[in-house]
Amino acid sequence: MAVEIKSEREIELMREAGRILALTHEELKKAVRPGISTGELDKIGEEFIRSQGCIPSFLNYNGYPASVCISVNDEVVHGIPSFKRILQDGDIVSLDCGVIYKGYHSDSARTYGVGSISPEAEKLIEVTKQSFFEGFKAARAGAHISDISIAVYDYIKTRGYSSVRDLVGHGVGAHLHEDPEVPNFPTGRKGVKLRPGMTIAVEPMINIGGFEVEWLDDEWTVVTRDGSLSAHYENTILITDGEPEILSRAEGIEL
């Protein structure tokens, strides 16, 4: 496994990609409401990314037909936007997108409630977000990938949730997906040792029910097998000599 260590120049480019990605998520967040279509959200995301001089990471990636993966309720990830898919009051929607700035990617995801959502759905979103931060705290030089995985898993398990096992986080940089893989559950292996200059996307995908998933006929959309709600939260992070750094953020915008 060849894990790339980024130069200062590469890190600066990824910071700028991450800043623009955070602004993109803010635009999407403002647009989420009952009655909007997932196709409209995708259009908003793509137009904003291009307005900032960037390219959507996901559009045509391995044939994916949109710029924002939009997954609703029991859809875990990779939902395909459609102007016929209308968000309803009480839904939860996961928005996963990436940008390319001068050849470097940033990747992040958020899950939002649409209108008024149930306490059960609200808690799932909050726990999923916090599980990322538990993993983030473990992402220190000298630790291993497994320390991130265990931190995420231990947090969600004590709250009665499950972590998807068929999909994992990943390295990110000049390519959208690089080594190493970053599971959100223990695998029994330590994984690579974290070193300053590594950039990884940590992305818990958490279900209220079981961890099992399946793919729909479109060969992209991943859903929970038992139909339970799922949430997704992700950031691109940098391993440093001290505290890890979230690269997919912008000043004044809440993570």
Task: Walk me through the structure.
- The chain has 255 residues and is of the alpha+beta class.
- The protein has a single domain, classed as Alpha-Beta Complex (Creatine Amidinohydrolase).
- Helices cover 27% and strands 24% of the residues.
- The protein is built from four helices and 15 strands.
- The strands form four sheets. It has a five-stranded antiparallel beta sheet. Strands 1, 2, 4 and 5 form a four-stranded antiparallel beta sheet that branches.
- A hairpin with a 2-residue loop joins strand 4 and strand 5.
- Helix 1 packs antiparallel against helix 2 and helix 3 runs antiparallel to helix 4.
- The longest helix is centred in the first third of the chain and has 24 residues.
- The protein is globular.
Q: What is shown here, in short?
A:
This protein is an alpha+beta fold.
- Rounded to the nearest angstrom, the distance between the terminal CA atoms is 31 Å
Radius of gyration: 17 Å
Here the CATH topology equals: Creatine Amidinohydrolase
Number of helices: 4
CATH class: Alpha Beta
Poorly predicted regions are: none
List the secondary-structure elements in sequence, H or E.
HHEEEEEHHEEEEEEEEEE
- The strand order across the widest sheet is 8-7-9-14-15
Which CATH architecture would you pick?
A: Alpha-Beta Complex
Morphology call: globular
Write the layout of secondary structure elements.
Layout: H1 8-31, H2 38-51, E1 55-56, E2 68-72, E3 75-77, E4 92-101, E5 104-113, H3 119-137, H4 145-157, E6 162-163, E7 169-171, E8 178-182, E9 199-202, E10 205-207, E11 213-215, E12 222-224, E13 230-232, E14 235-238, E15 245-246
Antiparallel strand pairs: 1-4, 2-4, 3-12, 4-5, 6-10, 7-8, 7-9, 9-14, 10-13, 11-12, 14-15
Helix pairs in contact: 1-2, 3-4
